[in-house]
Amino acid sequence: MPPASDPPDSQILARVRQRHKDIHDRLLRGDNLSAISRDLRLDRKTVRRYANLELDDLLASARDRRQEILARFKPYIQQRYRTGGTNAAQLFREVREQGYPGSKISVRKYVATLRAGTAISEPVLVPSPRQITSWIMRRPETLTSSESAQLGRTLEACPDLSTARELAHGFNAIARERRGSELVQWLGRALADGPKPIQSVATFLQPDWDAVINGLTLPWSSGVVEGQVTRIKLIKRRSYGRASFSLLRTLVLAQPP
Q1: At what angle do helices 183-193 and 196-205 cross, to 10 degrees?
Q2: Which of 53, 84, 198, 242 would bridge 194 by S-S if both were Cys, CB 3.0 to 4.6 A apart?
């Protein structure tokens, strides 16, 4: 019988008990660890761990792991609950989109503690700069509802990021659709309203203005030249210390691009 403290529908604990029973039944039959690992499709280290530890120790470890799975999603659930997101099923779907691998019952029980006022306050998780940059640069339609919500809160908290996002999307559209004639208007706004990093980019573009405009307007590029430079560098690396200049010249001219 499972301990009274265990929820009857805990899939993790039930799986631990069943796996422990299967492995020890095979051990009593005299099977070795490799055979058990192969037949049960488990890593050999996992089989050895189940063979060496008592069931109570394995269950205790599983209980801790089950709690840790939800721990990093609790700040988000708390924040959503405070803003009216009290439906446990909906919250489960949202955290699952963020990578939560656990069960719905764990989310439901945690929401119940929020309703009862017995939940421990969790620190608010701040998205990493890498995450924020990814959300800013991606097209809005590619973001999940959770990512959109987190990005919205981040932009609301930092107006400079909101301006940077608009300017970054505007420059991407100009480059992608070859609308170089609109760069003057973009540059003016970037210098007037953009955060300092955006202003630095805008200032950097000005000395080579004609080249930048042509690059964002004309269909031609220096890609072919860059490809040839890369090819010659590869030939030089292969021949370093073993060839003269005359042989290098022959290789460059003889090998097709």
Answers
A1: 140
A2: 198
Q: Quick check: helix, strand or coil at residue 143?
A: coil
Q: Which of 155, 153, 128, 151 is nearest to 140 (CA)?
A: 151
The 3-class SS string of 21-81 reads: HHHHHHHHCCCCHHHHHHHHCCCHHHHHHHHHCCHHHHHHHHHHHHHHHHHCCHHHHHHHH
Cα 150 → chain centroid: 14
Helix axes 55-71, 104-116, angle to 10 degrees: 70
For the chain, the structural domain boundaries read 11-69, 72-116, 130-215, 224-254
Distance CA 65, CA 30 (A): 31
Q: Measured between alpha carbons, how far is 91 from 107 in angstroms, rounded to an integer? A: 8
The string of pLDDT tens digits covering residues 46-69 is 888 888 888 877 776 666 555 567
Predicted pLDDT at 42: 86
- Give the up-direction half-sphere exposure of residue 195: CA atoms within 13 A in the CB hemisphere: 12
Q: Which of 72, 65, 172, 66 is nearest to 127 (CA)?
A: 72
Q: Which of 159, 127, 162 is nearest to 146 (CA)?
A: 127
Summarised one tens digit per residue, pLDDT across range 85-143 is 889 889 988 888 888 877 787 788 888 888 887 766 655 566 788 888 888 888 888 88
Tokens standing for 125?
Answer: 């998780």
